[in-house]
Design a protein that fits this description.
Strand content: 15-25%
Bound molecules: flavin mononucleotide
Radius of gyration: 22 Å
């Protein structure tokens, strides 16, 4: 198995949909919450204050501040604005209620888990923890200095984001690995931007030995480490360090469902994208030459909506209002500019994801398909004319991609990623797409719009429609932005 075989085998087509006999076995739906039982559970402070910096400024790279006095206050604020429960929905016909979180997730199935090690936080034991979003608490899985083992130096806070692929595969079967990777990209930016809003910077590592990190993190067999994120900065409340003795609790992972159905393609692609020993990042390849467009984007906008409110009210639109309402050209420029900032990660030596836009209703811009060239803030016209039917049809017939004001195909340059990082590069292209998606979710919300990530599309039809040669890349993620229709199921 190679990344390419997995990718080809999990493409949607009219034929693949016809062949699918899958039905959802609700009695075996995996629990979206992992708990490690039998370990100390530590409270995080109640009602953490909302980070006040404007969300758009955080997206541009400005750093906020926090007045957290100790570890519990700091961690509470960080997790509340990156990974906690932020709303619920109630199905009127059945009364069934389920929760939604600050970070989005394909099918709301939440394959991502947040583990972290702390070192030297005030009034907080150094150790290894797992975040429990269902009660906004931390499960203490070990005492000791674990971050140092992982990132070489003893950083005050080091996260390991893991995926439980079965949670996604229950619904999306073999294609689910792609969504797990997208979700990691979303979670990474949710964490990084929340950290920045309270005064710290982060750096992500994707190029690590999987088995060593799994062992370090005392991870259950069904959790796969995907990304390490180290945080640093003066706002983290730290104390003078005393040496601590290591004590392992580990804890018993809860069982997520009666039966775990095997998905051999997922196991296989995960295995080929693993690194089995310490790996160093290969030297930089030659950056691809940037292109130019003939349409310059206007300056971007600023809004005062604060980061805390934006992330807690972010939601995916179920569908968008069609009709005449458009977004302005400066709003579009702001959305695009939110994706531009360099991503701080060992694998982000080049950008592998490019944006193609299906413009339906943007004032001052004719409907059509455009390619975004970030270096010069320009758009290149690729096709003219109404794209509403096409965008919806390509997105597996989902109306929202046609009813939005604009939709996107994110195009992943898998070949360049594979040249730089081998099969591991497959993960990085998806992380980048998820990261761009997360940034556009927040920029949309800050501008009074709403967004939806779209993982389901007819792969080859998109590649053909956009006339993509393999050197240009393949579609990796779809996205839509506009004015949402109200969702009657949503509760605060
Ligand atoms: C990677 C990814 C793929 C998604 N794909 C779709 C999709 O194809 N269609 C759709 O309507 N929503 C899609 N969504 C939106 C999720 O359904 C949504 O995030 C989830 O229900 C949680 O809701 P929230 O975003 O409001 O928290 C996707 C989200 C992500 C992160």
């Amino acid at each position: 198995m190679t990344w390419r075989e997995y990718h080809d085998l999990t493409k949607h087509s009219a034929e693949s949909l016809r062949r699918t006999q899958h039905y959802l076995d609700w009695t075996n739906m995996p629990n979206p919450f992992r708990h490690y039982e039998g370990v100390p559970i530590l409270d995080l402070s109640a009602d953490p204050p909302a980070p006040q910096m404007s969300a758009l400024e955080v997206l541009e790279g400005k750093t906020g501040n926090t007045l957290a006095r100790n570890g519990a206050e700091f961690l509470s604020q960080l997790m509340f604005y990156s990974a906690s429960i932020s709303a619920s929905k109630r199905v009127p016909s059945t009364g069934y209620t389920y929760t939604l979180r600050v970070n989005p997730s394909s099918g709301n199935l939440h394959p991502t888990e947040f583990h972290f090690s702390t070192h030297g936080l005030v009034d907080w034991s150094d150790g290894l923890y797992h975040y429990r979003p269902s009660s906004h608490m931390a499960e203490q899985r070990a005492i000791g200095d674990f971050g140092g083992k992982l990132v070489g130096t003893s950083a005050p806070l080091v996260f390991v984001l893991t995926s439980i692929a079965w949670r996604e595969a229950w619904k999306y079967r073999h294609r689910a690995y792609r969504y797990c990777l997208h979700d990691i990209g979303h979670a990474w930016q949710a964490l990084t931007l929340a950290a920045r809003s309270i005064g710290c910077e982060s750096f992500a590592l994707g190029h690590f030995s999987d088995d060593r990190v799994a062992e370090w993190g005392l991870l259950s067999q069904d959790e796969w480490p995907m990304l390490i994120v180290g945080l640093h900065g003066p706002s983290i409340p730290v104390r003078v360090l005393d040496p601590v003795e290591t004590i392992l609790f580990g804890g018993q992972p809860n069982r997520l469902s009666e039966e775990q159905v095997p998905y051999p393609l997922i196991e296989a692609v995960h295995a080929v994208t693993k690194l089995t020993m310490e790996a160093t990042i290969p030297p930089l390849g030659q950056p691809k030459e940037s292109g130019r467009g003939d349409i310059s984007l206007p300056p971007h906008l600023s809004t005062s909506r604060n980061f805390g409110d934006v992330v807690r009210t972010r939601r995916s639109a179920l569908d968008f209002k069609g009709g005449d309402a458009s977004i302005s050209f400066p709003q579009l420029a702001t959305l695009l500019s939110s994706t531009k900032e360099a991503l701080f990660a060992d694998f982000a030596t080049a950008r592998f994801v490019h944006l193609y836009l299906y413009v339906h209703r943007v004032e001052g811009l004719a409907p059509g398909v455009y390619r975004y060239w970030p270096e010069h803030a320009e758009l290149e016209k690729i096709k003219e004319g109404d794209q509403r039917l096409v965008a919806a049809a390509l997105s597996l017939g989902q109306d929202l991609a046609g009813n939005a004001c604009l939709a996107f195909s994110m195009i992943g340059d898998f070949q360049s990623a594979a040249r730089s990082y081998g099969d591991r590069g497959y993960r990085y292209v998806h992380f980048e797409a998820g990261a761009i998606g997360q940034r556009m979710y927040l920029a949309s919300e800050a501008l009074g719009l709403r967004a939806t990530g779209i993982g389901a599309f007819f792969d080859e039809e998109v590649n053909r429609y956009l006339c993509l040669s393999p050197e240009l890349g393949q579609v990796v993620y779809h996205f839509a932005i506009g004015y949402p229709v109200p969702d009657p199921r949503l509760e605060a």
